[in-house]
Design a protein that fits this description.
Blueprint lengths: L7 E3 H6 L18 H4 L17 E6 L6 H15 L4 E5 L6 H13 L4 E4 L8 H9 L4 E4 L11 E4 L2 H16 L7 E5 L5 H16 L4 E6 L4 H14 L5 E4 L2 H14 L5 E6 L2 H9 L4 E6 L4 H13 L15 E3 L4 E3 L1
Parallel strand pairs: 1-13, 2-3, 2-4, 4-5, 5-6, 6-12, 7-8, 7-9, 9-10, 10-11
Antiparallel strand pairs: 11-13
Helix pairs in contact: 3-11, 4-5, 6-7, 8-9
Length: about 325
């Protein structure tokens, strides 16, 4: 097979790890964390970037924190803002209402903040108001869910969604690669989001590389209830399964509930996001969950760091290419017991 080798980490090592952000941010594959650790993982500023600069006001807007990963994202942003004496971070109330989030960005524009960090509930829907902010001379840092125009953000920080799918597919190939008739199932997140589409494409491509394909696929909505409902439908439709990839560990709680209710255990499952719950499932040794693909919850904290530099018209002095880059993509390794 021609797949690029992926690095695997133990669950125990993952739980004890923290992401050390050096200078501005780090993408060291060895320094990974669970979503539950991320909110507390804001590192002490280092290097020239830690030196106080002009006082700046940064606005932050994100979805409602009904999901553990979103909660960690928001808390991480708040903690990071607290690290800097020269930053006033204004955090809008989390919302899954697109119109309300648009109003939050408009308020930041009216307040003439110095920079905006936004994790949009729907990137396409918030693109126009983000362009409005950029046209007003306010740099926008786009986190996780990408806008539909390159003019909507000065910098975009993304998890490696395609890489998540590749990592999950590669793991399954390595476990089942000699079984030509293996049945692989997929429990996706919200199908309308580009990040879900990227995860599914990466998964499909990795499986194709070892002669497999997804036999059964359902989409949930990144919630516990959605995961349970979608999985119940999947298990009814597929009487025999060898492996399942579930895109999101939060909805994975519902996925596991449906699996238990159905009395099924003939397959193994790989999760997505690296939540503490899934780490415990992996470590237990008696769960269908064998592994999960990490999806960093440090993105908003990194966004606040970058927004500060942009607002102060400073650069990333600890890099050879010192200007703040247009796009940053974080690493998504597999962890297993």
């Amino acid at each position: 097979m021609s797949r690029t080798p992926r690095r695997y980490l133990s669950a125990a090592a993952l739980i004890s790890a923290t992401l050390l952000v050096s200078g501005c941010l780090s993408n060291d594959p060895e320094a990974v964390e669970t979503e539950d650790d991320a909110a507390a993982a804001a590192a002490e500023p280092a290097g020239d970037n830690a030196e106080p600069g002009d006082d700046v006001v940064i606005g932050f807007s994100g979805p409602a924190a009904g999901h553990g990963w979103i909660g960690a994202i928001t808390e991480g942003a708040q903690n990071q803002g607290d690290e800097f004496d020269d930053v006033e971070l204004r955090v809008s109330e989390g919302t899954d209402d697109v119109n309300q989030q648009i109003s939050q960005i408009e308020q930041f524009i009216n307040d003439d903040v110095d920079a905006i960090v936004v994790l949009p509930f729907d990137g396409a829907a918030l693109t126009e108001v983000a362009i409005e902010a950029m046209n007003a001379g306010i740099p926008v840092v786009n986190v996780d869910r990408e806008f539909s125009s390159p003019f909507a953000a000065r910098t975009t920080i993304l998890g490696d969604n395609y890489g998540m799918g590749v990592s999950a597919g590669t793991y399954i190939c390595e476990q089942l690669g000699d079984q030509d008739d293996a049945v692989v199932a997929e429990i996706a997140g919200i199908d309308s989001l580009p990040l879900t589409q990227d995860r599914s494409q990466g998964f499909e491509d990795a499986l194709s590389d070892c002669g497999m394909e997804v036999e059964n696929r359902v989409a949930a909505d990144f919630t516990v209830a959605g995961g349970e409902s979608a999985t119940a439908n999947l298990l009814q439709a597929a009487p025999e399964i060898d492996a399942i990839w579930n895109h999101d560990d939060e909805q994975g709680v519902g996925v596991l509930a449906a699996i238990e209710n159905a009395g099924r255990d003939e397959f193994f499952m790989i999760g997505g996001a690296g939540s503490a719950n899934m780490m415990r499932e992996i470590e237990s040794g008696d769960s269908v969950v064998e592994a999960t693909v990490v999806y960093p919850a440090s993105q908003a904290a990194d966004g606040v760091r970058l927004a500060r530099l942009l607002a102060q018209e400073r650069a990333m002095s600890d890099l050879v290419e010192s200007d703040v880059p247009r796009e940053i993509q974080l690493y998504a390794p597999v962890v297993m017991g």
